[in-house]
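Weekly modeling sync, notes
Attendees: S.R. (lead), two postdocs, one rotation student

Agenda item 3: backlog of single-chain predictions. S.R. asked that every request posted to the team notebook include the full sequence so nobody has to chase files. The rotation student volunteered to paste the first one in as an example of the format we agreed on. Action items at the bottom.

Example entry:
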Amino acid sequence: MKVVVYIKKKIIAVIIRFFMHTMNFFITMDDKMVLYLSFDGRSYSDNPKAIYETMLTDAKFDKYQLVWALKEPVIISGCKVIKKQSIEQLLVKWT
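Predicted structure, as returned to the notebook:
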């Protein structure tokens, strides 16, 4: 039974990877968007947090859309927060 589940997960992963690579041909990425992810979405911390806070204070990045992807979304001032591995995260990458 474990082998069947393992094979299903691998097949789904291949299909999703193919879909995401295919999307690159049809949808352009937004050059003014920054997606932050720290420790696989477990926390709002470390280097991405420092970069985010620096970008908030720098006037060069006023027109940028800053987005955090977290497993358990929390309120972070000055940006949009989305749930990691959600449809919304896929859409943010290609907006």
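Discussion: group reviewed the output briefly. The two ends are 40 Å apart (CA to CA).
Action items: rotation student to repeat for the remaining queue; S.R. to check formatting next week.
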